[in-house]
Each structure stands twice: as structure tokens, then as C-alpha cells.
Amino acid sequence: MMKDSEPGLEFKFGGGKKLEAVFDEPEVTSDFGAVLMRAVEENEKIISMMSGMVSDERDEAHTIHTNREMMMQRTFQIACGYEDANDCDSLRSDVAFKAAVKKNPSEDLSSQPTMSRLENRVTARDLLRMGYGFVDHFIDSYNKEPEMIVLDLDPTTNICHGQQQMSLFNAFEDEYCLMPFHMYEGLSGKFVTALIRPGKTPTDKEIISLLKRVVRRIQDRWKRTLIIFRGDSHHTKPEVMDWLERNNLKYITGLSRNAVLERQFEQAGKEAELKRKRTGQLKARVYASGYYSAQTWSRARRVICRAEASADGVDLRFIVTNFEEAGAKYLYEVVYCGRGKMELMIKDHKTALKSDRTSCNSATANQFRLFLHSAAYVLMHSLRSKALGGTALAKSQFDTIRLRLLKVGARIEVKKRKILFHLPESFMFQEIYRKISEFFGISPAPMSG
Question: How far is CA 277 from each of CA 239, 270, 273, 281, rounded to the nearest angstrom?
């Protein structure tokens, strides 16, 4: 109940009855979507996997909150828009989150200090097991071995505002930052893994180290799947291309322009300019293909040039690939430019789910946070791809899905044998809720206690 000393709200609109609001109703939630997230988790088991990878040396006799409960609480809060551990203090008594975690309504969830202790006691060995667990979960998400998958890899900037381990000053960003790797399957948008790393351009050793762990895990399970690697020019390093070729991967990556390439494909630029003048178009493109070998490369490789002419002049862009047969235009416009979808995946992960909140001092704690946000990504992606197909929200961003489906007010009635959520009668997405219920039709388990 609200204390007498706590002020309410008075709305002075003038005329009619006076409007007031008081914060005194414990049996109301604004986040019924937490319960929805639990239904998705029952299908995905991603948090159950993570919690099983974390060692727990606490005395069971004095342990109130299990690792699994705390990780569910934190992940569901992230999905509902509460990305900070501090939010645990405000939401630990919310019955919707208690129900989602299967906690007795009379027992509170964990507080911020308890959650922070969990973040800081996870070990590097725990995180390694968890990382492999995410890759295994990705593999298990397919009903059968796919003919082809595309691994999109890219670092993204997490600005630092404290003394985080691995924080470096990045001149391009003009900020101290971390630049964690994000890897997704480019055709489906499924999450593969994410890795905390320093705020600088990735090295060949960093790229190969991550690819080794992921690719070998996949190839152990899938013997016939064609694996394609895509990345920007930061990933076009001699050792990386050699490793990809030795391990039977196809690749298509950006290639930085230089004077030798510009001379080699000068004719393509001239043809693009002639095409623009001949057709009267504002812009005209021409594609060309040839073989090029930098001094540091072990052999010559196929390079594709996209020459675009406009009123501002001719712009040349390059990619390098070990696809020998496909046409230059198709490889550039469809295959390589298709990696632009990854920006939307990172946007869902980083912007909608606030995974750039890596503000712990230790790198291990920040890696664990990144995995918690990744679990929220897996749940939200599963909800969208599996249950929202054919609905108005089928292609929505995660923050839109949250606003429409998760941030739903409900009055809570705690009975002897059940918890009843009274949802708004005028809720406009009732049919979508019913569809979700049919897909994730999970019978409620008994409450603990």
C-alpha cells in the first residue's frame, strides 16, 4: 500500500470531476508480457541451458534464489524493457514477474545486490560452456540439417562510461568503448553467439579464434551443409581467407580500395559513366570481375567491382570471394548486400534490448550480461518468427513487439489454486494473443512453495 506521506497525482483539467491517481494497488501489473515470455522459454529452453552452465557453490541451506530463477527474472525484465540490474529492486514484488519465474506470490524475487553478485561470480569457464551452449541451441533450432547457412559477423560499438576492462579509445567513434562481436545466421536472423572484445578493429587471430569454435561445432553436427561467411572489409585478412578455404567455407567479404584495384578496374568506371550519359539516369552501375592478389595474400582471388557513376563522379566498391561461377552483379547486390539485414538484427539486440549496457568493471561480468541480453533476443526472435507469422506484427522490430504485446496492464487475482490475470476487455491484439497461446500452448506448472 502507498504510504500516507507519498503524494499522488492530481490532474487539473478544469470543469467536471477532479481527477487523481495514487500508487497504492499491489495487485496490478503493467508487464503481463513477462508471463508470455515464460511460455516462449518453455519452448526454447535457452535460459535453462544457460543456468545449467553456471557453477553454484553457495550453501543450499542459505540460498533463496536459484541461478535459474535469477536468470529468468533478469532476462524477462530485459525483454520487457528493464535493462538495468537496479530495476530488480522496483520489480521484485511484481506478481507478473513472480508468476513468470514460478515464484510463490508471497515471496519476492531477487534484489539488485543479489543480481549483481550473480553477474560477478560467473567464471570464464562458465561463459565458455555457455557460449558453446548458444551454438548448440542454434543448431538444435533446425528440424533437419539445412542445405546452406550464412554466418554474418560484425563488431558493434558499446560506449564505456566507466573503468571497464578492455575499454579502449576508438578514434573513429571518438569514444572509449568495447566492440563486441555479434554473429547471426543471415537468412533466418537466428542468434549464433556474441563475444565481448576491446574497442578496436578485430585482428585475424580474434576472427579465426571465434570461427574455429563456431564452425567446428557446426561441422561436427552437419556434414553436408554449405557454410557461407560474410563480413565487411575488417574481416578480409590473408590468414582469415586461408583458414576459410582450408575448412571448406565459402566467403564473400568487403575489400578496401587501393590504387592497384582502381587501375585494374578503371574501365568499369568509364563504362558506368558512359551508361549514365547514354541512358540519362541520375546514377548508373556496371559490374566487373577479375583476379587480384595483394602482396600478403597466398594466392590470387576473385574480386568483384561495383562501379557507380553519378553527377559527383565515379565510385568504385570491391568485394572478394571464392565463389567462382556466380555472376558479379548477383554476388554483390544479392549475396553481399544481403548482409545489410544484419544491421537490423544488431539493432534489435543492441537498441531494442539495450545489450550495450555493459557497464560492469570486469570483462567476465559484461560477457555474462551480453549473454543475458542474447537470451532475450532468442526469446523475442522465436516469438516473432514462430508465432507472429501472418499477423500485423510479423516483421516488427523487437521494441514494437514489446510495446504492443508485452507492455500490457492486468489486474491480478491470487486465488488458492491459481493466479488470474484480468486483461483489458478492449485490448486490440486479443487474436494475436490467442494465436501465440495456440503455438506455445504450455500447461501451467504448479507454483513453488
Answer: 42, 11, 6, 7
Give CA–CA dist 308/285, Å, rounded. 4
How far apart, in whole angstroms, are the C-alpha atoms of residue 65 and residue 70?
A: 6
Which one, of 243, 261, 267, 270, lies nearest residue 320 by Cα? Answer: 261
What lies within 8 Å, CB to CB, of 145 at 6+ separation is 221, 222, 223, 224, 225
CA atoms of 386 and 394, how far apart (whole Å) = 9
User: In sequence order, what DSSP letters do the residues of 241-273 get, joined into one string?
Assistant: HHHHHHTT-EEEEEE---HHHHHHTHHHHHHHH
pLDDT digits (tens, 9 = 90+) for 205-239: 999 999 999 999 999 999 999 999 999 999 999 99
Q: What's the 3-state SS for 7-49?
A: CCEEECCCCCCCEEECCCCCCEECCCHHHHHHHHHHHHCHHHH
Phi/psi at 153 (5° precision): -125, 135
Closest Cα partner for 348 from 324, 317, 382, 320? 382
User: For residue 433, how far is the Cα from the chain centroid?
Assistant: 24
Average pLDDT over residues 251-266: 96
Q: What is the CB-side half-sphere exposure of residue 141 using CA atoms within 13 A?
A: 23
Ramachandran angles phi, psi of 287, nearest 5°:
-115, 145
Separation of CA 362 from chain center: 21
351-374 pLDDT, tens digit per residue, is 999 999 999 999 999 999 999 999
Judge whether 361 and 162 are in contact, CB under 8 Å.
yes
Q: 3-state class of 371 per DSSP?
A: helix
Cα 30 off chain centre by: 24
C-alpha span between 404 and 67 (Å, rounded): 30
